[in-house]
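User: quick one, fold this
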Amino acid sequence: MTMAQDTIVVSIAHGSRPYRQFSEEQKTIGGKKGGHVVIEMDGYAYGFFFKGKRIHILPHRYTKNGIFQKQTVKEWNQLIIDRKVTTIFIPVTTEEKLQLLKFYNENLKSPSYDYAFFGQRCASSVYTGLKSIHKLKRGNYLFHAFYPGKLRKTIIKQNGVNGYRIQVKAGTIKRKWEGD
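Assistant:
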């Protein structure tokens, strides 16, 4: 077995809804089951998002509305400044990190799959990537990463074996956060 030489970071912004008294707060896609997930490597946050006005219910083969994003960690942190975020530090080998980087760099040019409700989304995309480098075991994304909170629970549940370092940053008190 090869020893880990590097670390990737899975950053999970929790879903939320505004409390009634803060009606000026922006609504978000998915509410408490929403949120967003990225993998941070080498100073960049890589994620999968949809473009356009509607999320496809089932994946479309030729009219994909998904887009892979690459932004600096500084830009990502600015986007999540008031959000509740769970951060998981995962040790990886150089080969494992290079495998993930290759996947993201290829998909930044042309996404290999569509963004769809019953298909790949941000959480399931990260789940698939972590499974490909054997950092998560078992199962289909429908049961383990259908939305960001489910992925967070899956990683935490398997953490007894893996021992990843996990941090949770509180979000604004104006919202009810998933996981509270």
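User: anything notable?
Assistant: The beta strands are 6-14, 16-18, 35-41, 44-50, 66-72, 85-92, 165-169, 175-177.
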